[in-house]
Write a structure and sequence with these properties.
Elements lengths: L4 E3 L5 E6 L6 E8 L5 E4 L6 H14 L6 E5 L5 H4 L2 H8 L3 E4 H11 L5 H11 L4 H12 L11 E4 L4 E4 L2 E7 L8 E5 L4 E5 L20 H13 L5 E4 L8 H20 L8 H9 L7 H20 L3 E6 L2 E6 L1
Parallel strand pairs: 4-5, 5-6, 6-7, 11-12
Antiparallel strand pairs: 1-2, 2-3, 3-4, 8-9, 9-10, 10-11, 13-14
Helix pairs in contact: 5-6, 7-8, 8-10, 9-10
């Protein structure tokens, strides 16, 4: 994909930072400040192609890396977090993210990380075949280079007020997509930076992962309810294009999950493993792609666990693992 710099209202710039998987790009926002310099939101995954895209952008704009005065991360997923350390070394700018998101980044890619083994064990309990389980750890380890060097973090939290783009923004804690995910709202212009919590055209991934709080889909839907109460004129997502009907998109996402829950509930007449449900639900979209399969199985688990929490299904022990059936 050819990198693309789009000029938005208010002098904002959106760079489509290339990704080496199905999403194709992540949105990085470069926002000018009236007093000089720029704020950067979610710089992308650290790849050679991404470095080249940023080098071309900096050159095209006629600015220097040290023009970036702060780097804000909505969450720790590698396509958002990965270049933060590289950009910090280039610019000297502080990197801001939530404490919970940074803690989970350390769990994923820290020196004492155990996530590879934890996720493999989780998927083993839910029916993933051995030949696929063997691919999980190498796949996850491949991301370490894509988030290195890792940044020094300054913590921000729910309710904190940040200044960028000539205005004051409030941090909003949103749950279900990634631990410690933050959105940012500016009330005077009714703008929302929504990261991956609300996306146009595609649905944000909601996953069961080791070390999560549990109730991922419940927490995600509760965050959507909260966000729906904001008066939003324009929203700036992590993927796809900025959009205006924020409340309408939230309603669509809620309806999507309600339909999916009903569909899954109808497949539980007999005990079935989450992996088999996942294959039935996602089909060819996950064939031969361990990256997509990982997200698909974790999202399947989030929906099945939600059915259990609602009393519509039960999780039953089968040997060393689990199956789900209608209650």
């Amino acid at each position: 994909m050819q990198d693309e710099l789009t000029m938005l209202e208010g002098g904002w710039m959106r760079l489509k930072v290339p990704l080496p998987f199905s999403l194709r790009f992540v949105n990085a926002y470069l926002i000018p400040d009236p007093t000089g310099g720029y704020t950067l939101i979610d710089p992308g995954l650290h790849t050679t192609a991404a470095e080249e895209a940023w080098e071309r952008t900096i050159d095209r704009l006629g600015i220097t890396y040290d023009s970036v005065r702060q780097i804000i991360l909505t969450h720790m997923h590698p396509d958002h977090y990965g270049m933060a350390g590289w950009f910090q070394l280039k610019s000297g700018a502080p990197v801001l993210m939530s404490r919970a998101s940074h803690a989970y980044a350390r769990r994923l890619w820290g020196q004492d990380r155990a996530f590879d083994a934890e996720l493999t064990a989780l998927y083993d309990q839910h029916g993933m075949p051995l030949e696929l389980l063997a691919q999980i750890a190498p796949h996850l380890e491949s991301f370490v280079a894509l988030v290195s060097p890792q940044a020094e973090i300054t913590y921000i939290a729910e309710g904190d007020r940040l200044t960028f783009g000539g205005g004051e923004w409030t941090a909003i804690a949103t749950e279900g997509h990634g631990e410690g995910h933050l959105c940012f709202y500016r009330p005077d212009t009714r703008l929302m930076v929504c990261g991956d919590q609300v996306l146009p055209d595609i649905t944000p991934n909601v996953s069961v992962v080791p070390g999560g709080k549990g109730g991922e889909l419940r927490r995600f839907l509760a965050s959507l309810e909260r966000l729906e109460s904001y008066d939003v004129a324009a929203a700036f997502p992590g993927h796809r294009d900025p959009f205006t009907d924020f409340a309408g998109r939230i309603r669509e996402l809620k309806e999507h999950h309600a339909r999916r829950l009903d569909m899954l509930a109808g497949w539980l007449d007999e005990p079935v493993a989450a992996y088999d449900i996942c294959v039935r639900m996602f089909g060819e979209r996950i064939g031969g792609n361990i990256h997509n399969l990982r997200f698909a199985l974790s999202e399947t688990l989030a929906h099945l666990d939600h059915l259990v929490d609602e009393g519509r299904a039960e999780r039953v022990r089968r040997g060393e693992g689990f199956m789900y059936q209608r209650k």
